[in-house]
Design brief:
Blueprint: H1 15-25, H2 30-40, E1 44-47, H3 52-62, E2 71-74, H4 81-94, E3 98-101, H5 109-116, H6 120-123, H7 125-144, E4 148-150, E5 167-169, E6 175-177, H8 185-194, H9 246-257, H10 263-269
Parallel strand pairs: 1-2, 1-4, 2-3, 4-6
Antiparallel strand pairs: 5-6
Helix pairs in contact: 3-8, 7-9, 9-10
């Protein structure tokens, strides 16, 4: 049934084709979704912050019999030391090519704070998200010629991810594959343990999900959700910006640079998304 689709897919995808692809992929295991992607998705890379789901996908790819797609790691400069250690473990274990992208014009925290000021995440989290995740990702996609990416998102993570499909097309035309979209945390954790996949040591210290050190804390008694401890004091925040509308994020950051009041962003953002 897989050969009903072009190899590789011809872009842009029609809505009808996307629906047909998702109907097909929804019936496959994560391993089979990944094998399908390796032959059907053009210019395929894996974006990862080395969370559990991304590590499972990487391990599955390493056992697929096909070359592993290159990885893109967005180094915000504010990762935990344990995360940087994990990057080295993954590189050694899988002999995979990891492309590292940092905030534009910055090699260190000092560089970043000289450019943006201290604790930007407290002053304007949207601008921070754009500077450390969104802009570096778009730069990586352009420089590397990326047209498709493998993500570690799953429905059971909740928030904006609750209605995930196996394959999505974002507002820039980028294809996003979510091979473990239907897996629970229990399934992911079992795979990690059964296959001795490297994992972040902080997960053994009370953390459920690991991001930047300034916005991640161990989960507390009564916390619910797989990403408890991330943005704990940020109300309804569930995403770092990487999977939000790129054009709106770009415009918001630009307006902030010009010090235009935040309330004008919503009204103006409608002009950013192309028809």
């Amino acid at each position: 049934m897989a050969d009903q689709f072009n190899t590789p897919l011809e872009l842009p995808l029609s809505e009808e084709t996307l629906v047909a692809i998702n109907t097909h992929l929804s019936q496959l295991s994560p391993q089979d979704i990944l094998v399908w992607a390796l032959t059907h998705l053009p210019a395929l890379y894996q974006t990862t912050a080395f969370g559990l789901t991304g590590l499972v996908a990487l391990d599955m790819l390493s056992k697929s019999g096909h070359p592993i797609p290159k990885l893109i790691f967005l180094d915000t400069l504010y990762h935990f030391a344990e995360t940087y250690e994990l990057v080295q473990q993954v590189r050694a274990r899988y002999s995979v090519d990891i492309k590292v992208y940092k905030p534009e014009g910055c090699k260190t925290i000092r560089d970043f704070e000289k450019k943006h000021g201290e604790e930007l995440w407290e002053k304007d989290e949207d601008t921070y998200d754009f500077a450390v995740k969104v802009e570096p990702a778009q730069r990586a996609y352009q420089e590397l010629g990326v047209r498709s990416v493998i993500t570690g998102r799953r429905r059971s993570q909740g928030g904006d991810r609750a209605s995930l499909q196996p394959l999505e097309v974002d507002e820039t035309g980028l294809l996003k594959l979510n091979p473990l979209f239907a897996w629970s945390f229990g399934q992911v954790d079992a795979y990690i343990r059964e296959n001795n996949v490297p994992r972040n040591q902080l997960l053994d210290q009370g953390y459920r999900s690991v991001g930047d050190w300034h916005s991640t804390q161990p989960s507390r008694e009564g916390d619910t959700g797989e990403r408890a401890g991330r943005w704990a004091d940020k109300g309804e925040k569930t995403e770092c910006g990487l999977h939000k509308n790129f054009f709106e994020m770009k415009l918001r950051a630009k307006l902030e640079e010009q010090r235009i009041p935040a309330e004008e962003v919503t009204a103006a953002s409608g002009i950013a998304t192309p028809a």
